[in-house]
Specification:
Layout lengths: L2 E4 L3 H13 L5 E4 L2 H10 L4 E4 L8 H8 L7 E6 L3 H14 L3 E6 L4 H14 L12 H9 L3 E10 L5 E12 L3 E3 L1 H10 L3 H19 L4 E5 L2 H4 L3 H11 L7 E6 L8 H12 L3 E7 L8 H4 L2 E6 L1 H6 L4 H16 L3 E5 L4 H10 L3 E3 L9 H16 L9 E5 L3 H15 L4 E4 L2 H10 L2 E7 L8 H7 L5 E5 L12 E4 L4 H16 L11 H11 L4 H8 L3 H15 L4 H7 L3
Parallel strand pairs: 1-2, 1-3, 3-4, 4-5, 7-9, 9-10, 10-11, 11-12, 12-13, 13-14, 15-16, 15-17, 17-18, 18-19
Antiparallel strand pairs: 6-7, 6-14, 7-8
Length: 574
């Protein structure tokens, strides 16, 4: 691999060259100005450029946009100490121009940082660009018919409960000559040749049939685009799901913000009819498109997926941090679930859980996998759930709140905690009366501003024999009813519901009952062991040392008289 360093400071360029040599890259040339850059480009093909943005006779931005664009198949690493906004603009420009690989190396940098950039570049070379694919519409259609395309499944987990709750089906292509290709290599061609409908039918059919056979209680997410919305999407989706005996209520269709912009009457008809059948809709890559926030109110959106670049940089970039937090607050305030893509390490996972993201999707919790690996993951999840604390000493919950949007938002968040389908909302005495008449309700949550002089007496009579918690900021207000618990209201719905959950668990004692021989902590450890987690993960999740985890493991095996996790699962009939 031939590398060019474009840097006008001799000490800086020499230091970078020495660092590259330590990593085993010795075919390196240095250019200190525009003349030397042109000379080297006339004589050599450069695989990777390390380019400073400050040069004496031409700034690096101009050089990248005008002078080395004949080398678009090369990679570019921007090495500079300029403001992040300028670097981000330059990265965007290079991506728009079509450079094969673009990255940033901030000054000052460590050897590990440089090593990571090089490894990323080498890995990126294995990705075939669309421009490299010389393929006709007929050949691409043939690959579809021959089932060279196939779905790969990336798991989704609840941040709150840790449950395995869904998958996104991602398309892959096993090309007979080029091998395994990612969507970035062929998706543009599929759109160009108007084959997105055929791809959707293929992916939906394959995924729903496979998941139906696995008998997993998880949801399926699938990408669609504007072209599909202006097509017989409702009829074909319903037809395929019914054929494969797959419930439409378990299907989520993902749109980008751009695809959800300026919808036609037919698009809106499809959205409405599918929503009536229980299909959910998600906005993918939220924050990167051009649609207005008004669409979150006008369209049946039930989920926001934070773009992976925000998630990936949230811990290191203030603006991405604030955008991520704002997305979570917006989603929760509207009663919409929030999904984080691109979660790749425990630090990011911990941060996202702390700020209240609902669902995790990323390499940290699971890479895209085959249906066989998904089956194994599903089996582990079922075993874990058999020890989970899903049993409760109460039935349903009803939220009484005149603000319907807020109560629906609370309902969604409650479901993440309790995994319930029996959370109800009512905004009037009549609705509350009907719920209490028709459903086995054990707890009412009442928002104090919904109690008025006109309805207080009627409400008191209705709930006379019922248990209820009161949400209020005015403890001494004489109009308040005699509640089992007084809960302070908060603008942060996620935090308020979390606190409510803690009080409900305490009040009803609905925590899981320990197995006869195991303490509560031993049962917690056993549950995670049966789910296939390592001692290191269990240590982090339970806040104990790895040595303590090993001690608990030995106790569990001794009490149960078993010698392995497999024997433990058999003992518990899992």
């Amino acid at each position: 691999m031939k590398i060019m360093i474009i840097e006008d400071e001799p000490l800086q360029s020499l230091n970078l060259k020495m660092q590259l040599s330590k990593l085993g890259y010795v075919d390196v040339v240095i250019a200190n100005n525009l003349i030397e850059v042109k000379k080297e480009l006339n004589e050599n093909y450069i695989d990777l450029f390390f380019c400073d943005l400050h040069l004496p006779d031409a700034d690096g931005v101009c050089l990248l946009s005008s002078y080395i664009t004949d080398s678009l198949n090369s990679g570019v690493v921007i090495v500079s100490a300029v403001d992040d906004k300028i670097k981000n603009l330059t990265v965007g420009m290079c991506n728009q121009l079509g450079y094969r690989y673009v990255s940033v190396l901030n000054k000052p940098f460590k050897l590990d940082d440089l090593d990571q950039v090089i490894k990323s570049y080498v890995s990126h070379q294995n990705v075939v660009k669309t421009s490299d694919l010389k393929i006709t519409s007929r050949e691409l259609n043939q690959l579809l018919m021959e089932e060279k395309f196939f779905p790969s499944y990336q798991p989704q987990f609840s941040f709150i409960s840790g449950d395995f709750i869904g998958v996104e089906a991602l398309v892959r292509l096993e090309h007979p000559e080029l091998g395994l290709l990612m969507p970035s290599s062929f998706m543009t061609l599929l759109k160009k040749y108007s084959l997105m409908k055929e791809l959707y039918i293929f992916m939906l059919d394959k995924a729903t049939k496979a998941l139906g056979m696995l008998n997993l209680d998880i949801r399926l997410s699938l990408n669609i685009n504007h072209e599909l919305l202006d097509w017989e999407l409702y009829e074909r989706t319903k037809e395929i799901c019914e054929k494969n005996n797959y419930s439409l209520t378990s299907l989520t269709l993902e749109l980008t913000e751009d695809d959800a912009y300026n919808l036609t009457p037919l698009s809106l008809e499809n959205l409405a009819r599918l929503s009536m059948q229980g299909v959910k809709f998600s906005i993918d890559d939220f924050g990167t498109g051009f649609a207005s926030l008004e669409m979150l109110i006008d369209l049946p959106i039930s989920e926001l997926k934070i773009d992976k670049k925000f998630v990936f940089n949230a811990l290191h970039d203030y603006r991405h941090l604030q955008l991520t937090k704002a997305s979570v607050r917006l989603a929760h305030s509207l009663g919409i679930d929030c999904v984080a893509e691109g979660v790749e390490d425990i630090e990011t996972w911990e941060f996202l859980k702390q700020i209240g993201v609902d669902v995790c999707q990323g390499y940290y919790t699971g890479k895209p996998m085959t249906i066989h690996d998904l089956n194994a993951l599903g089996s582990l999840a079922k075993k874990a759930n058999n020890l989970d604390s899903k049993n409760k000493n109460f039935n349903g919950i009803v939220i009484f709140d005149k603000e319907i949007i807020r109560s629906n938002a609370m309902k969604k968040i409650f479901k993440n905690y309790f995994n319930l389908h029996d959370v109800f909302v009512s905004s009037s005495i009549e609705e509350l009366s009907q719920v209490l008449r028709d459903m086995p309700i054990s707890l009412i949550i009442i928002e104090d501003n919904s109690i008025t002089l006109n309805n207080s007496e009627e409400l008191q009579s209705l709930i006379e024999d019922e248990k209820f918690f009161l949400l209020t900021n005015n403890i001494d207000d004489s109009k308040l009813l005699k509640a089992e618990k007084i809960i302070k209201k908060s603008e942060d719905l996620f935090e308020m519901v979390r606190y409510l959950h803690e009080n409900i668990v305490e009040y009803f004692d609905c925590c899981a009952k320990p197995k006869i021989l195991l303490s509560k902590r031993e049962q917690d450890v056993a549950q995670l062991l049966l789910a296939g987690f390592s001692n290191k993960y269990i240590s982090y999740e339970l806040g104990i040392s790895q040595k303590t985890v090993s001690t608990f493991k030995m106790r569990i095996f001794k009490k149960m008289n078993v010698k392995s996790i497999i024997e433990l699962a058999r003992y518990l009939n899992l």
